[in-house]
Amino acid sequence: SYELTQPPSVSVSPGQTASITCSGDKLGVKYSCWYQQKPGQSPVLVIYQDTKRPSGIPERFSGSNSGNTATLTISGTQAMDEADYYCQAWDSSTYVVFGGGTKLTVL
Amino acid sequence: EVQLVESGGGLVQPGGSLRLSCAASGFTFSNYAMSWVRQAPGKGLEWVSALSGSSAGTYFADSVKGRFTISRDNSKNTLYLQMNSLRAEDTAVYYCAKGWLTLHTFDHWGQGTLVTVSS
Protein backbone atom coordinates (compact mmCIF):
# COMPACT_ATOMS: atom_id res chain seq x y z
CA SER A 1 0.00 0.00 0.00
CA TYR A 2 1.11 3.55 -0.65
CA GLU A 3 2.42 5.58 2.28
CA LEU A 4 3.24 9.23 2.92
CA THR A 5 5.79 10.14 5.60
CA GLN A 6 5.92 13.44 7.46
CA PRO A 7 8.11 14.59 10.36
CA PRO A 8 6.13 14.47 13.61
CA SER A 9 7.03 18.01 14.56
CA VAL A 10 8.56 21.21 13.20
CA SER A 11 9.39 24.33 15.17
CA VAL A 12 9.78 27.86 13.82
CA SER A 13 10.23 31.33 15.25
CA PRO A 14 7.62 33.99 14.45
CA GLY A 15 8.37 35.74 11.18
CA GLN A 16 10.62 32.94 9.94
CA THR A 17 9.99 30.36 7.22
CA ALA A 18 8.63 26.94 8.09
CA SER A 19 9.02 23.97 5.76
CA ILE A 20 7.10 20.73 6.23
CA THR A 21 8.02 17.77 4.04
CA CYS A 22 5.99 14.81 2.85
CA SER A 23 7.73 11.82 1.31
CA GLY A 24 6.33 9.04 -0.83
CA ASP A 25 7.44 6.85 -3.69
CA LYS A 26 7.34 8.92 -6.91
CA LEU A 27 5.13 11.44 -5.14
CA GLY A 28 6.17 14.05 -7.68
CA VAL A 29 4.07 12.43 -10.42
CA LYS A 30 0.95 12.57 -8.26
CA TYR A 31 -0.98 15.65 -7.20
CA SER A 32 -0.51 16.49 -3.53
CA CYS A 33 -2.49 18.71 -1.23
CA TRP A 34 -2.16 19.98 2.32
CA TYR A 35 -4.61 20.48 5.16
CA GLN A 36 -4.31 22.56 8.31
CA GLN A 37 -6.07 21.40 11.46
CA LYS A 38 -6.20 23.45 14.64
CA PRO A 39 -7.17 21.84 17.97
CA GLY A 40 -10.84 21.00 18.17
CA GLN A 41 -11.49 22.08 14.57
CA SER A 42 -12.07 20.37 11.26
CA PRO A 43 -9.29 20.31 8.66
CA VAL A 44 -8.94 23.17 6.19
CA LEU A 45 -7.50 22.83 2.68
CA VAL A 46 -4.50 25.16 2.32
CA ILE A 47 -2.76 23.84 -0.83
CA TYR A 48 -4.14 21.73 -3.69
CA GLN A 49 -2.64 20.36 -6.91
CA ASP A 50 0.84 20.79 -5.43
CA THR A 51 1.08 24.58 -5.61
CA LYS A 52 -2.36 26.21 -5.68
CA ARG A 53 -4.01 28.10 -2.85
CA PRO A 54 -7.80 28.05 -2.34
CA SER A 55 -9.42 31.44 -2.04
CA GLY A 56 -9.01 32.87 1.43
CA ILE A 57 -5.70 31.16 2.16
CA PRO A 58 -2.92 33.69 2.82
CA GLU A 59 -0.15 34.09 0.26
CA ARG A 60 2.43 33.06 2.85
CA PHE A 61 1.35 29.45 2.25
CA SER A 62 2.99 27.80 -0.75
CA GLY A 63 3.68 24.29 -1.97
CA SER A 64 5.97 22.32 -4.22
CA ASN A 65 6.25 18.70 -5.31
CA SER A 66 9.12 16.98 -7.09
CA GLY A 67 10.77 13.59 -7.06
CA ASN A 68 9.68 11.81 -3.90
CA THR A 69 8.94 14.88 -1.78
CA ALA A 70 6.19 17.46 -1.48
CA THR A 71 6.86 20.50 0.66
CA LEU A 72 4.56 22.98 2.38
CA THR A 73 6.27 26.30 3.02
CA ILE A 74 4.94 29.01 5.30
CA SER A 75 6.75 32.31 4.89
CA GLY A 76 6.65 34.88 7.66
CA THR A 77 5.05 32.35 10.00
CA GLN A 78 2.54 33.77 12.46
CA ALA A 79 1.35 32.47 15.79
CA MET A 80 -2.03 31.69 14.20
CA ASP A 81 -0.31 29.18 11.90
CA GLU A 82 0.42 26.86 14.82
CA ALA A 83 -1.50 23.70 13.95
CA ASP A 84 -1.23 20.15 12.66
CA TYR A 85 -0.58 19.84 8.94
CA TYR A 86 -1.40 16.81 6.81
CA CYS A 87 -0.29 16.05 3.29
CA GLN A 88 -2.50 13.92 1.08
CA ALA A 89 -2.32 12.26 -2.33
CA TRP A 90 -4.16 9.78 -4.52
CA ASP A 91 -2.78 6.36 -5.35
CA SER A 92 -4.46 4.05 -7.85
CA SER A 93 -4.37 1.07 -5.48
CA THR A 94 -4.65 2.66 -2.05
CA TYR A 95 -6.85 5.53 -3.21
CA VAL A 96 -6.78 8.49 -0.79
CA VAL A 97 -3.68 8.57 1.40
CA PHE A 98 -2.87 10.98 4.23
CA GLY A 99 0.50 11.53 5.80
CA GLY A 100 0.81 11.01 9.53
CA GLY A 101 0.69 14.73 10.23
CA THR A 102 3.18 17.33 11.43
CA LYS A 103 2.68 19.48 14.49
CA LEU A 104 3.93 22.98 13.74
CA THR A 105 5.00 24.92 16.81
CA VAL A 106 5.61 28.67 16.57
CA LEU A 107 7.88 29.77 19.40
CA GLU B 1 -22.44 28.86 1.95
CA VAL B 2 -21.46 25.19 1.90
CA GLN B 3 -22.52 23.29 4.98
CA LEU B 4 -21.94 19.66 5.89
CA VAL B 5 -23.60 18.38 9.05
CA GLU B 6 -22.87 14.87 10.28
CA SER B 7 -25.11 12.93 12.63
CA GLY B 8 -25.63 9.40 13.89
CA GLY B 9 -22.56 8.91 16.03
CA GLY B 10 -22.68 7.40 19.48
CA LEU B 11 -21.65 4.51 21.69
CA VAL B 12 -21.94 1.02 20.22
CA GLN B 13 -20.74 -2.38 21.36
CA PRO B 14 -18.10 -4.33 19.45
CA GLY B 15 -19.74 -6.24 16.63
CA GLY B 16 -22.58 -3.74 16.45
CA SER B 17 -23.76 -1.45 13.66
CA LEU B 18 -24.27 2.26 13.18
CA ARG B 19 -25.34 4.48 10.31
CA LEU B 20 -23.90 7.95 9.91
CA SER B 21 -25.53 10.70 7.88
CA CYS B 22 -24.13 13.87 6.38
CA ALA B 23 -26.63 16.55 5.37
CA ALA B 24 -25.26 18.87 2.69
CA SER B 25 -26.38 22.33 1.63
CA GLY B 26 -25.10 25.33 -0.27
CA PHE B 27 -24.00 23.49 -3.43
CA THR B 28 -25.37 21.13 -6.09
CA PHE B 29 -24.83 17.92 -4.13
CA SER B 30 -25.21 15.51 -7.03
CA ASN B 31 -22.34 17.13 -8.93
CA TYR B 32 -19.66 16.28 -6.38
CA ALA B 33 -17.95 13.22 -5.02
CA MET B 34 -18.09 12.86 -1.26
CA SER B 35 -15.88 11.08 1.24
CA TRP B 36 -15.77 9.98 4.85
CA VAL B 37 -12.55 10.63 6.76
CA ARG B 38 -11.99 9.60 10.38
CA GLN B 39 -9.67 10.63 13.16
CA ALA B 40 -9.05 8.43 16.19
CA PRO B 41 -8.55 10.30 19.48
CA GLY B 42 -5.17 12.03 19.42
CA LYS B 43 -4.29 10.51 16.04
CA GLY B 44 -4.04 11.62 12.43
CA LEU B 45 -6.52 11.66 9.58
CA GLU B 46 -7.52 8.39 7.93
CA TRP B 47 -9.59 8.28 4.77
CA VAL B 48 -12.42 5.73 5.00
CA SER B 49 -14.53 5.77 1.85
CA ALA B 50 -15.53 7.82 -1.18
CA LEU B 51 -18.48 7.90 -3.55
CA SER B 52 -18.79 9.66 -6.88
CA GLY B 53 -21.61 12.10 -7.52
CA SER B 54 -23.60 9.62 -9.55
CA SER B 55 -22.82 6.74 -7.15
CA ALA B 56 -21.12 4.94 -10.04
CA GLY B 57 -17.78 4.75 -8.28
CA THR B 58 -17.21 3.59 -4.70
CA TYR B 59 -13.89 3.31 -2.90
CA PHE B 60 -12.94 1.92 0.50
CA ALA B 61 -9.88 1.78 2.69
CA ASP B 62 -8.66 -1.77 3.30
CA SER B 63 -9.36 -1.33 7.02
CA VAL B 64 -13.12 -1.08 6.44
CA LYS B 65 -13.66 -3.00 3.20
CA GLY B 66 -16.43 -5.56 3.56
CA ARG B 67 -17.73 -3.99 6.79
CA PHE B 68 -18.70 -0.44 5.73
CA THR B 69 -20.89 0.69 2.86
CA ILE B 70 -21.27 4.20 1.49
CA SER B 71 -24.32 5.59 -0.24
CA ARG B 72 -26.04 8.85 -1.04
CA ASP B 73 -29.52 10.15 -1.69
CA ASN B 74 -29.15 13.05 -4.09
CA SER B 75 -32.84 13.93 -3.70
CA LYS B 76 -32.20 14.52 0.01
CA ASN B 77 -28.68 15.96 -0.36
CA THR B 78 -27.47 13.37 2.12
CA LEU B 79 -24.46 11.07 2.33
CA TYR B 80 -24.50 7.91 4.44
CA LEU B 81 -22.00 5.52 5.95
CA GLN B 82 -23.33 2.17 7.12
CA MET B 83 -20.87 0.64 9.57
CA ASN B 84 -21.20 -3.05 10.49
CA SER B 85 -19.09 -5.43 12.56
CA LEU B 86 -17.64 -2.48 14.43
CA ARG B 87 -14.34 -2.86 16.28
CA ALA B 88 -12.66 -0.87 19.03
CA GLU B 89 -10.22 0.48 16.44
CA ASP B 90 -13.12 2.11 14.58
CA THR B 91 -13.49 4.56 17.46
CA ALA B 92 -12.98 8.00 15.96
CA VAL B 93 -14.50 11.28 14.92
CA TYR B 94 -15.98 10.74 11.47
CA TYR B 95 -15.96 13.68 9.08
CA CYS B 96 -17.73 13.95 5.78
CA ALA B 97 -15.81 15.90 3.18
CA LYS B 98 -16.76 17.36 -0.19
CA GLY B 99 -14.63 16.55 -3.20
CA TRP B 100 -13.55 19.46 -5.39
CA LEU B 101 -11.84 19.33 -8.81
CA THR B 102 -11.03 15.70 -8.06
CA LEU B 103 -12.59 13.05 -5.85
CA HIS B 104 -9.70 13.37 -3.43
CA THR B 105 -9.31 17.13 -2.92
CA PHE B 106 -11.51 18.08 0.02
CA ASP B 107 -12.48 21.74 0.02
CA HIS B 108 -15.14 21.55 2.73
CA TRP B 109 -15.45 19.40 5.84
CA GLY B 110 -18.21 18.86 8.36
CA GLN B 111 -17.74 19.28 12.09
CA GLY B 112 -17.56 15.54 12.64
CA THR B 113 -19.51 13.00 14.68
CA LEU B 114 -17.92 10.80 17.34
CA VAL B 115 -18.26 7.03 17.15
CA THR B 116 -17.18 5.08 20.22
CA VAL B 117 -16.97 1.30 20.03
CA SER B 118 -16.78 -0.14 23.51
CA SER B 119 -18.42 -2.70 25.75
List the helices and strands and how they pair.
The complex is a heterodimer of chains A (107) and B (119).
Chain A: E1 9-12, E2 18-23, E3 32-37, E4 44-47, E5 61-66, E6 69-74, E7 83-91, E8 95-98, E9 102-106
Parallel strand pairs in A: 1-9
Antiparallel strand pairs in A: 2-6, 3-4, 3-7, 5-6, 7-8, 7-9
Chain B: E1 3-7, E2 10-12, E3 18-25, E4 34-39, E5 45-51, E6 58-60, E7 68-73, E8 78-83, E9 92-100, E10 102-109, E11 113-117
Parallel strand pairs in B: 2-11
Antiparallel strand pairs in B: 1-3, 3-8, 4-5, 4-9, 5-6, 7-8, 9-10, 9-11
Q: What features would you describe in this structure?
A:
The complex is a heterodimer of chains A (107) and B (119). The mean pLDDT of chain A is 97. By secondary structure, chain A is an all-beta fold. Chain A has strands at 9-12, 18-23, 32-37, 44-47, 61-66, 69-74, 83-91, 95-98, 102-106. Chain A has no helices and nine strands. In chain A, strands 1, 3, 4, 7, 8 and 9 form a six-stranded mixed β-sheet that branches. A three-stranded antiparallel β-sheet of chain A has the order 2-6-5, with no helix packed on it. In chain A, a hairpin with a 3-residue loop joins strand 7 and strand 8 (95-98). By secondary structure, chain B is mainly β. In chain B, 0% of the residues lie in helices and 55% in strands. Chain B is built from no helices and eleven strands. Chain B has strands spanning 3-7, 10-12, 18-25, 34-39, 45-51, 58-60, 68-73, 78-83, 92-100, 102-109, 113-117. In chain B, the strands form two sheets. In chain B, strands 2, 4, 5, 6, 9, 10 and 11 form a seven-stranded mixed β-sheet that branches. In chain B, a hairpin with a 1-residue loop joins strand 9 and strand 10 (102-109). The model of chain B has no long low-confidence stretch (mean pLDDT 96). The A-B interface holds A 1, 31, 33, 35, 37, 42-45, 48-49, 54, 84, 86, 88-90, 94-101 and B 35, 37, 44-47, 50, 59-62, 95, 100-107, 109-112.
